[in-house]
Amino acid sequence: MKVRVFDTTLRDGEQTPGISLSPDQKLSIAKKLDDLGVDAIEAGFPVISKGEQNAIKMITQANLKSEICGLARTNKKDIDAAVDSGLNYIHTFIATSDIHLEYKLKMTREQALEKAIEAVEYGKSRGLQVEFSAEDATRTDREFLKKVFGEVAKAGADRIDIPDTVGYSTPEYISQITKDAVDATHLPISVHCHNDFGLAVANALAGIHAGAECAHVTINGIGERAGNASLEEFVMALQCLPYGEKYETNINSKLLYDASRFVSKIVGIQVQPNKAIVGENAFGHESGIHTHGVLSNPLTYEPISPELVGRKRWLQVGKHAGIHGMNAMLDEYGIKPTQEQAKEILEKVKSLGDQGKQVTDVELLSIASDILKEQGVKRIVQLTGFSVSTGIGTMPYAFVKLNIDGQELSATDYGVGPVDAALNAIQKVTGKIAEVRIKDYGLASISGGSTALCEVTIRVEDAQGNHVSAKSIGEDIVTTSVQAVIAGINRLMLKKMLKEKQIGN
Known about the structure:
The chain has helices at residues 23-36, 50-60, 76-84, 98-105, 109-125, 142-154, 171-185, 200-209, 231-240, 256-267, 288-296, 323-331, 339-354, 361-371, 418-430, 477-504, and strands spanning 4-7, 40-44, 67-73, 89-95, 129-135, 159-164, 189-193, 214-217, 284-285, 314-315, 381-391, 394-404, 407-414, 436-445, 454-462, 467-474. By secondary structure, the protein is α/β, with parallel strands linked by helices. The strands form four sheets. The protein has an eight-stranded parallel beta barrel with strand order 1-2-3-4-5-6-7-8, surrounded by nine helices. The mean pLDDT is 90.
């Protein structure tokens, strides 16, 4: 069965507190969603502002493959604004629960039903495809909900949507009212689930299993309050979990991670590390039992291959680490300790972990170099020049000069602060040699007073998804940050060069 993916990142996702997107930002996200393969993009709520209308016009004129939809309340003004924005598809809604009718709309059930019918008829008279939503459906009287759906179907609605507006439903109940909607309308049914109780994806899946053909979702699950059903979790659950019936979507799953990072950067909301599918830890392993199993057969501790969603597996050392995982990490840098040396390295790693410290890749290599009596791992990248400038009324900027394997390169860039400017400049330089991105940045103070030491921990990633973590300690935050990043980039580029050499041989 083919399941339709209706993405509302640009409408419900933008209603996340603190998010406000410009027309250009909306267009860039719409193009990314189109590349991903979503069937429909809810581009916004046309009536709310001129900027919103301009954004929607830009998207409707971009010749995207996805259908473009706009939100409208059940009144002529909203529907006309959608038409004026170049839309031929609207998602119109009115609340149907008694609590909304009494306290928000000040309407009777009959008045709300009349408004719903009028909106659908008017939308059809304007030549629009109309999807009708009964807002707060899961808290609406069940018999009245069936009546509303039946009447708007008679009025000409093309699709029906069941919104779990405050995430109040259970999978069992969403299944029941989905079947009601199918029986009452014989139209394609969508489900729009919120995550207030952490059940958005489970409820969306239950709706599909009960006969719905479409789910409203957002990238990274962003949205009002606790958010919406996450596109990436919903799609991969349909694709990979054993349901009996085979479900398919038009989503290119290998682009999920890239789309997640793209949206996260634009909206300014970081994805939690332990989030399913796209969280940084989703395919990371530290426990010795887990790393041993994964190295033998990834399916022992991974339900899907990370490459399926555009990811790569990564290993971390710490107090839970085992010798197999640690040796696998060292092998990526061409380091092959004896059994006794490996035990000694692991003992020092666990000692650091017992102190509550995160052991980065760079620290692991330093410990290994000490025990193997080597002079250290080759440094491909050398920092040869660096300065920053900041002040009131001026945007901070940084100058960085690097020697990368004998080649002198430099760049200047700006940022929201001196650290951001320095890291942007480094990324501009390394982009000429290798696509290196800074994924995580952590800052902690490890001493007090005017000469306090700070500790910077970073994680960098290349275009192939390889990760390296590094740490640096110093008095100056900017300099310490630069040193940590350079250390991480060194190890990442060394890892890449060793892999290329192995392939060449």
